[in-house]
Amino acid sequence: SFYMQCLGEEAIACAQQHALRSGDMHFPTYRQQGLLISAGYPLVTMIDQVLSNEADPLRGRQLPIMYSSKEYGFFSISGNLATQYIQAVGWAMASALRGGSEIASAWIGEGASAESDFHAALVFASTYQAPVILNIVNNHWAISTPEDFARGASATFADRGYGFSIPSIRVDGNDYLAAYAASQWAAERARSNLGPTLIEWVTLRRGAHSTSDDPSVYRPADEAERFPLGDPVERLHQHLAALDDGTGTWDDRCRQSMQAEIDAEVEAAFAEASSHGSVKDGHTGRAETMFDDVFVEMPRHLREQRDQVAKLEGR
Ligand SMILES: Cc1ncc(C[n+]2csc(CCOP(=O)(O)OP(=O)(O)O)c2C)c(N)n1
Fold it and tell me: How far apart are the first and last CA of the chain?
């Protein structure tokens, strides 16, 4: 029913996932599905949620693309943007207070960085030297609003960190190796008690904002071709091809066969998830499950309502 792509910004989340460890926690927006995919979270389960079928792990309580997996270090996505920042900083402060080595990673788009939660989070991150990575994904668009609107008088989004004495850098987000190296550096700083690091990732949203958006009405059709940082997948291919010493470790043939393998994997995952049904054919979670997981001990009146729903549905 609804989907949001990360086309053109895949390198950032995919690379950062490999710089963090099990036990760390990401506080993502809807545009970091790469964190889950590169951590090996099952594609079938992601598609189950997109189809809102009976196997949806969140049982229809979230928007289709708002995943949640504590086990994979992926905090439940909130539709209220910028909340991720204060939650991540609070989580990182708690980790430090416990004497733990786990770090947090906060995610925000450049548009949402104009929210007051962003600035409140930076005050606390700086004051308490919280072990957190503060990611700003500057993909140049906040739906139809260009990035310079949210940036205002600042030269860059990274500049915002300096006012809080937070080390802040701007990184080519379409270079997978740079995304990995910068993430590793920031993670290492957090783990060594050197506090927060702010990273502005420069990239481009190549697709629509969401399936409800039509970018052709507000931006040029050839923007992606003209973007100087290119495409992250193409650039990773070029990095790998440059390492090939003629023995065929990575060339166009390898790329084609890997592409075919991945296409087949996605198609198979889609077929498997579709076999669990979808919201369209009525194979959704049972209505009475809406009462589960809310109270440790469910109050009597809710137990009664749950039983009434089950009865109405013939169970
Ligand atoms: C607090 C809040 N305000 C407004 C919205 C509506 N909204 C959803 S996405 C979006 C644009 C966000 O742009 P940006 O932060 O640049 O992230 P991007 O979508 O480009 O990844 C807006 C305004 C929201 N979800 N939450």
Answer: 28
CA distance 74 to 71: 8
pLDDT tens across 61-116, in order? 899 999 999 999 999 999 999 999 999 999 999 999 999 999 999 999 999 999 99
146 membership: H or E segment, kind and range: strand 145-146
CA of 35 to the centre of ligand 1 (A): 19
Query: How many residues appear in the chain?
Result: 315
How many A from CA of 240 to the centre of ligand 1?
Answer: 35
Q: Which domain holds residue 297?
A: 287-312
Same structural domain for residues 31 and 140? yes
Residues 29 and 126 in one domain: yes
How distant, in Å, are the alpha carbons of 193, 202, 243 from that of 187?
10, 19, 27
On the question of pLDDT at 1 being above 80, the answer is no
Q: Do residues 26 and 175 share a domain? A: yes
Ligand 1 pocket, 9 CB below 6 A? no
Query: Residue written as tokens 């931006």?
Result: 219
pLDDT-above-70 percentage for the chain: 100
pLDDT tens for 166-205 read: 999 999 999 999 999 999 999 999 999 999 999 999 999 9
Same domain, 29 and 155: yes
**Is ligand 1 within 6 A of the CB of residue 111?**
yes
Q: What is the C-alpha separation between 164 and 134, in angstroms, rounded?
A: 13
Residues 305 and 231 in one domain: no
Sheet holding 104-109, edge to edge: 25-27, 104-109, 132-138, 197-202, 168-172
Q: What is the CATH number of the domain that holds 141?
A: 3.40.50.970
**What's the pLDDT tens digit per position in 135-153?**
999 999 999 999 999 999 9
Contact 80 CB / ligand 1 (< 6 Å): yes
Which amino acid is present at 205? R
- 98 φ/ψ angles, rounded to the nearest 5 degrees: -75, -10
Structurally, the chain folds into a number of domains equal to: 2
